[in-house]
Amino acid sequence: MEKIMEILKEIRPEFDFGASGNFIEDGYLDSFDLVTLVSELDSVFDISIDGLDIVPENFETLEAIAGVVKKNGGAI
User: Fold this and answer.
1) Is the pTM above the cut of 0.85?
2) Residues near 7 by Cβ (< 8 Å), separated by ≥ 6?
3) What is the pLDDT of residue 71?
4) Most buried residue among 30, 34, 47, 65 by CB atoms closer than 10 A?
5) 66-74 long-range contacts, Cβ below 8 Å, gap at least 24?
6) pLDDT tens, 3-32?
7) Which residues contact 33 (CB under 8 A, 6 or more apart)?
8) Percent of the chain with pLDDT over 70
9) Rounded to an integer, what distance in angstroms lies between the CA atom of residue 26 and that of residue 52?
C-alpha cells in the first residue's frame, strides 16, 4: 500500500491522503486524476485495470484502490 500512497502523493502532493475518509467526496481526486492514477497503477504494478473497475467507489480509499489492484492481478 506504500506504493499506492506514493503514487497518490505524486498526483496530488497538496493533499494529505492519510487524513481523508473518501478521496472522491473530499475532492482529493477528480476524473482526470483517476485516469492518471489508473495509468500509474497499471505501470507500477504491471497490470491492466479492467474498464468495468474504473468507477469512483474503487478509488475512494487506500483500501479500495489496493482491492482493485489485487483484483486485476497486482501484488501489494
Assistant:
1) yes
2) 37, 40, 41, 44
3) 97
4) 65
5) 66/1, 66/4, 68/41, 69/4, 69/41, 69/45, 72/47, 72/48, 73/45, 73/47, 74/41, 74/45, 74/46, 74/47
6) 999 999 999 999 999 999 999 999 999 999
7) 11, 12
8) 100
9) 23
